[in-house]
Amino acid sequence: MAKKQFKTESKRILDLMINSIYTHKEIFLREIISNASDAIDKRCYVALSEGESGFSRSDFKIKVDIDKDRRTITVTDNGIGMTREELEENLGTIAKSGSLNFKENITSEEKAEAEIDIIGQFGVGFYSAFMVAEKVVVTTRSLKSDEAFVWESTGVDGYTIREGVRDEVGTEIVMYIKPDTEDEVYGEFLRPYRIKGIIKKYSDYVRYPIVMMEEKTYEGTEGTFFEEETVNSMVPIWQRNKSDVTDEECNSFYKETYYDMNDPCAVIRINAEGSLNYKAMLFIPSKAPMTYYTKEYQKGLGLYTSSVMIMDRCEELLPEHFRFVKGVVDSDNLSLNISREILQHDRQLKQIANNLEKKIKNELKKLMTNEREKYEGFFREFGLQLKYGVVSDYGVHKDTLTDLLLYYSSLTDSLVSLEEYVSSMPESQKYIYYARGESIAKIASLPQTEAVKEKGYGILYLTDDVDEFVVNILGTFMDKEFRNINDKDLGLETEEEKAEADKKEEENKPLLDFVKEALGEEVEFVRLSHKLKSHPVCLVSEGEITLEMEKYFKSLPGEKENAIKARRVLELNGDHRAFEALKKAYEEDKEKAVKLSKILYTQSLLIADMPIDNAVEFAQMVSELM
Ligand code: ADP
Questions:
Q1: pTM of the shown model
Q2: Is the model's pLDDT at 490 over the cut of 50?
Q3: Is residue 361 part of a domain?
Q4: Is 31 in the same domain as 180?
Q5: What is the tens place of the pLDDT at every residue in 180-197?
Q6: 561 and 619 housed in the same domain
Q7: Positive or negative, the Cα torsion across 413, 416, 421, 426?
Q8: Best substitution site from 14, 73, 74, 90 to test ligand 1's pocket, by max atoms within 8 Å of Cβ?
Q9: Ligand 1 within 6 A of 170 CB?
Q10: What spacing in Å lies between the alpha carbon of 125 and ligand 1's midpoint?
Q11: Mean pLDDT throughout 600-617?
Q12: Are 69 and 202 within one domain?
């Protein structure tokens, strides 16, 4: 029998398949099963459009058989089948060859990348069988014909077509699995457990039953029996009516699919109809996976078309700031063979992604309003992600994310949103006050919080490194400016009070300059404080870089010495006994005044949780004075 040659393009793809180093060879089964499912669809279409009597969808199935001894996997369907001409046409050429532009003269690296792209995202259909099989034999009988034909190929050298025998309309594809090599154990595809796993993974929602023979033993009887078992569950949970799916089912689907022990914090179901047709089922986890804030974590949603999986993690569907969301999108408008390249520029997909972002945002807002405790639990896990989202891309996402943020405030024991903070501000309060520190307790005890607290105003306690960047990006919220409690002017004083303070500052100028002199380069300048009540001293900063930012920069690897420093300002409480003592020393004993200046400065460092590099000197000075 004469061998026929494949068309050029097909030959190249076959060559690619046979020599593939692609790691997910398992997708061959998805492709073969998906063809079988299409063939059954076509068969049903004919029956329905011609009003065939005695027709029932339930007569159809896809069978997968494994023969370990012959090293074969056989996939059989009772779909539409193929005539001799169709065999020639469909399996001798590859339908998509036009869109596969193989570049000439590409490097082997580029080639490997192109290969991964083509196989992984295109699928490349029927020919992907050659990734695992050294020979493929297709026996088929068309609905239009009484004869059966056999197509056979061992690869690039061509194929043969001969007459064959088949009682039923439909197609049988026998794949002769390659022998194992040093690098690849093809034999894994002959293990029923593995094959079942692949079917579950990629083809669970194929509309027709995919059956395998299952070996069973029964108590009281001898020997083993084979029973047909349906492997796929056929109707995906997201395709079922919302009212037919219990919370329990949703939760266990989530837990099984995404390997999470906890129930999700919220489930979002979307059934979009109109210009964009798609269904989506999204989950907001209640706990962040261990790897969440590392490079290891990968975002994305499962992408399906008519219940057949295209991609298990499509990144384009989720914005970075909602990367914690899990779930699936199923759209009939997409082609199974869509490439990643195309996906990135696909308008429909972009629109879907935009809609999903809105839905996720709304769901979170709803949780925040209606199920506060749950939302706070979520926020503890993923709040940091939302904050990163606010500062990323120069703040373009801030409108979406700002009202999802929560902070501790000095006025309440619980978390408040910015909106809640602002709407409970008294008329007289001009600014949104905030203080940054390592922990709530540390911030709460900062001396410079005194004046604001005394007025009865709330202070937002910022405990994450990213928080100050968030505040900087926001600038204002609901027309109220943010104000760091370290700022010189907190807007708490009347004009008169201010004038009086300025006068006092002027009077004490020589002393303040003296202290600055004593401390040298350590501080930018020394001034009287407007915000201290009971404490003698505090350290603040002036300008963009705050003390907390300085600490953060210092903590970065390799930055300890060169890190950007805050411009330190020492504030003294002019009404404090310590200040009186300093003043007295300044007038009577300059040497003592220098020591007192250093002691006060070191105290301010300790309170601000800044490192001190003269601890011994400090201790000596204190005991000397005692
Ligand atoms: P695609 O499925 O994307 O068209 P394939 O290379 O997978 O590309 O298949 C080529 C063609 O072969 C299919 O379009 C279909 O017409 C035919 N074919 C493949 N498998 C079967 C089958 N099991 N039954 C009937 N026709 C099939």
A1: 0.69
A2: yes
A3: yes
A4: yes
A5: 999 889 999 999 999 999
A6: yes
A7: negative
A8: 90
A9: no
A10: 7
A11: 88
A12: yes
